[in-house]
Amino acid sequence: MKENKKTYWKGLEELTNDESVVRNAEREFPEGPSNLDGSSRRDFLKMMGFSLAAASLAACEAPVRKAIPYVNKPVDINPSIPNYYASTFASGGDYASIVVKTREGRPIKIDGNELSPISQGGTSAIVEASVLSLYDKQRVAGPMIDGEKVEWAALDAQVKSQLASAGSVKIVTNTILSPSTEKALQQFAEAFGGAEIISYDPVSSYGITKAAELTYGTAMLPTYRFDKASVIVSFAADFLGTWISPIEFAKQYSKTRKITKEKPEMSRHFQFESNLSLTGANADYRTPIKASQTGLAVLALYNALAKKAGGATFNAAAVDVAYLDKAANELWANRGKSIVVASSNDPNVQIVINAINDLLDNNGVTVDFSTPSYFRKGNDVNMNQFVADLKSGRVGGVVFYNCNPVYDYVKGAELGEAIAKAKVSITTNGTLDETASLVKMVAPDHHYLESWNDFNPRKGHYSLSQPVISPLFNTRQAQDSFLTWAGNDTNYYDFLQENWKSSFFASQSEIATFQEFWDRTLFNGVYTVESSSSPVNGSADLVVAASGITKVYKADNAGTELVVYTKVGIGSGAFSNNPWLQEMSDPISKATWDNYLTVSQAWAAEQGLKMFEGATKKAKVTIGEKSILVPVMVQPGQAKGTVGLALGYGRSKAGRVADGVGVNAYDLLTNANGFTTYDITDGVSIELTSDSYKIAQTQTHQTYMDRQYVIQESTLPEYKENPSAGRDFPKVYMEGEFVKPSKISLWKGHRYSNHHWGLAIDMNSCIGCGACTVACQVENNVSVVGKEEVLNRREMAWIRIDRYYSSPEGASSNKELEAAADNPEVIFQPMMCQHCNNAPCETVCPVAATTHSSEGLNQMTYNRCIGTRYCANNCPYKVRRFNWFKYHDNKAFAAVNVAQNDDMGKMVLNPDVTVRARGVIEKCSMCVQRIQSGKLTARKEGRRVQDGEINTACATACPTNAIVFGDMNDPESNITKMLKIEDNNDSPTKEVGEERAFHVLEYLNVNPNVWYFTKIRNKDKSEA
Question: 695-705 pLDDT, tens per residue?
């Protein structure tokens, strides 16, 4: 068996053995109080002694509690018993069918709805965190006119009278997925002279819909089916992270990446991009290219395929793109089961993409225009015309329906200055954001968790949302406002039901009453209509498209190029005021609380820039007459000659969390021929300044200090030859022979007579999206600590996603390592408490605060912990978190730890989980509160727990099902079958038959209850 001799590293500072990494690795713990540098541990404990003792004494005093019983208890609310409601998350074109958990009428957690054929039970970090925005005190508390609070009746009267005499009225909105909302808006528009409805998206896909119109006659997005593709080729489309419908695509993609010895087949993924994206990090073959080359690379791919088909080709400048010919050969060999996508907003590029998929017989299979998606319906041309009309005074009245174009549109600054020219300006936005703060009248909408609505994300697919809490403020659903202003006295709930009765119930035959149909659909949350579809045929003028590409794109652009992108956690910026998202480590850069200019190593070397411990310099980015100052981050995988910058930051009216965080990249966007351009290839100037800055990164905060065999990986050809390929099997010498480490132990071992809980994590399925990290934070009341504390290495996350870069075997010289870092391979590994059966933390705790349960869990008794941190010192995985401060009820953290320092924010806290005090250790509990609840339910019903009834927050959130939780003593459980556990006895040492399953740091013999499956790449054996 070939031994894996790759070099793994978490960041450039670790690769280069930077002095800061060495120092912190030796220190093992984050910095203590600043005046203790160099002090001994004894001095630290002397200083901490009084505060720890005082905290312990305070903990012994019972808090004052006042419980007011219900006089008339609501029928559906029982104290301590959660209720669950099917609903829908939709923000602009972003969509997920969800299930909302409430306690005593408070929504506290969001999970995915497994009945949805689109999101299929998956969520994202933004969806998970969205529940906190419900409890934002900075939401608009009621209607306002000219900044003053008014009654709804007064607002309605003014809106009606002023719009009636305003003249031309425009309604501006993001993509609307709700057919009932569109109907209500249409009534409103008709009531005021046929007002025009203008739709735009902060991140536009208009180039795709326009190309579809030119090719097939209808402006639309197709349904993409990555699960039906054996070969995937993407040109900068981050479909696993942020592109169009990432939850749906991640679920599909993961199905093509899961392998077993019986079915050792997986898709092959090629990615061509400038910035290292989440999707690029998961690709089998990734090629960094300049943005100015993208169109030519797409055209070159078409020419290569056209030659194989015997068709005509187009003259274009030759581009040297690694793996492009290989991708063409693989695509041609997999016609009808391949897919080619691109993120470009240039319709000429998308026309060629359509032609490629047609040439490969993918149309109707992996790219289906006969079943269109409705996620991105924005029209850049119409929006540009609206801005021009507003500036020239041709717009008498404007209504902004839950959108913020002053911030997130390419011409937002111009729009903001022109709003005052309209006679009437109205918004339904729920916060006084950059747009709402400039209008005359504010009619605040409910939060989506307070609202009724329906959604149509794809042809034939529908879902409902329902209020799970009464409105917290004097808000009104925007649809009710539109109906009221249109003179329709029907409330939106009745309007919605009537729409469904006429649209869907009329075709029902097996359901007797509409109420029964409505209740069933509301319970399930989703509804599917059988719709006929036929292949979409058509053709665009490829000659014109090819000519347009050759005029715009360049094979060798000498200038620097800026590629603007969106982050997984922050997205377009609509939810940037959410501290859970701000503190989430970016999957690629592992940075929090900032955006930054990503640059290549080559550029950094030319400028003499070296980052260490997040310390860097700022650069002045100039495009035409626009300039911004932004910190610089050296990012492995960044294409040479390009720089990257994330949208969603630089808010000025977002709220106390996001205001002033980062810089606004929307200001740098351009508009080419009516299409918003996210790749700026001309006139970009980057000047490094002397201004210092610190970026809070987490990638090297948990150091294994030369410990080996954390990552185990191989290639598909090697796996087919040997299912154990890539595995390390450590042996220790005992009595004349080499044996497994588990054969030697000072432990007597635990016996598990009932349950034995464990996790199995498939590293082939894990894409590193981070949904699990936010889900854990929400479920377990994990504190937000803020940027300064992250810089001090004190983040509190119970589960982290370790991102490793790797250099190929044999790379040892500085030159070879630098070359590898230009385009490294990337592996993501979820890391939480491993719940070791031979737990080293348990043996060193002087007060038995950390103990072992009878079901295999490593437990923490918080009110017993005195904060010695011996357990953290003894943990080989570095997964324990120490509370340096009292993060809750602490004014110092009020601006960031909103959920624990705000009276309203506290409503989101899970009452089943303790909010931890200062000076204690905390860590993953494997969601023991969920385990206990599931066991109690089963016991009350007189039965055993069934597999799937209990699940951890991380496993539930995972859109790729990479994390599987279950009872390893149950022979029918999914985890038992995955691991192929051969003997379900009560021993802590399980003999597993799955060749890919391994323990991290297995040679230490701590015998974890968390298993990982070897990472397998679909690369040719010679290229491994």
Answer: 998 876 555 54
For residues 864 and 886, what is the distance between their CA atoms, to the nearest angstrom? 16
Query: What letter does residue 218 receive in the DSSP assignment?
Result: S
As given in the structure block, the two tokens for residue 147 are 């900044």
Mean pLDDT along residues 150-171: 94
Q: Above 80 in pLDDT, residue 66?
A: no
896-913 pLDDT tens trace: 899 998 889 999 999 999
The pLDDT tens digits for 722-769 are 999 988 888 887 777 888 787 777 777 788 889 999 999 999 999 999
**Residue 813, both tokens:** 């010289």
Which one, of 675, 575, 578, 170, lies nearest residue 401 by Cα? 170
Segment (H or E) for 773: helix 771-779
Q: How many residues can be counted in the chain?
A: 1024
pTM over 0.85: yes
Is residue 59's pLDDT more than 50? no
CB distance 412 to 406 below 8 Å: yes
948-965 exposure pattern, b = at least 16 Cβ within 10 A, e = fewer: eebbbbbbbbbbbbbbbb
Q: List, for residues 112-122, the tens digit of each pLDDT value.
A: 999 999 999 99
Q: What is the mean pLDDT of residues 958-977?
A: 94
Question: Do residues 368 and 229 lie in contact, with contact meaning Cβ atoms separated by under 8 Å?
Answer: no
Q: Is the pLDDT of residue 9 over 70?
A: no
**21 has pLDDT over 90:** no
Q: Do 341 and 224 touch, CB atoms closer than 8 A? A: yes
Helix axes 492-503 and 514-524, enclosed angle (nearest 10): 100
The owner of tokens 């679920």 is 251
Q: Residue 214 — very low, low, confident or very high, per pLDDT cuts 50/70/90?
A: very high
301: tokens are: 């791919």
Bridge partners of 109, per DSSP, are: 101
- pLDDT the model gives residue 598: 94
Structure tokens at 699: 């990638």
Closest CA to 30 of 703, 589, 783: 703
User: CB of 801 within 8 A of CB of 768?
Assistant: yes
Element (H, E) at 979: helix 974-979
The whole-angstrom separation of Cα 800 and Cα 89 is 25
Written as six digits, the tokens of 411 are: 């011409």
Q: Could you give the percent of the chain with pLDDT greater than 90?
A: 70
Closest CA to 931 of 1020, 862, 1009: 1009
Burial category of 793 from C-beta neighbours within 10 Å (exposed 0-12, middle 13-18, buried 19 and up)? middle
Q: Which two tokens stand for residue 472?
A: 């917290």
- The CA R_g of the chain, rounded to the nearest whole Å, is 29
Residue located via tokens 């936005």:
429
DSSP state of 507: G
pLDDT higher than 60, residue 34: no
- Contacts of 543 by beta carbon, 8 Å cutoff, 6+ apart: 314
DSSP E strands, 239-360: 268-273, 285-288, 338-342
Q: Strand (E) positions, 695-792? A: 696-697, 713-715, 732-734, 737-739, 757-762
Distances in whole angstroms, Cα of residue 32 to Cα of each of 20, 41, 973: 16, 10, 45
Longest Cα–Cα distance in the chain: 97
Helix (H) or strand (E) holding 281: helix 278-282
Is residue 258 pLDDT above 50, yes or no? yes
- Residue 819 pLDDT level (bands cut at 50, 70, 90): low
How far is 628 from 413, CA to CA, in rounded Å? 15
CB 679 within 8 A of CB 600: no
Question: What is the chain's mean pLDDT, rounded?
Answer: 88
Structure tokens belonging to residue 200 = 């735009």
Helix (H, G, I), strand (E, B) or coil at 713: strand
Beta strand 268-273 pairing with 231-235: parallel
Tokens of 926: 């494997």
Collapsed DSSP state (helix, strand, coil) of residue 716: helix
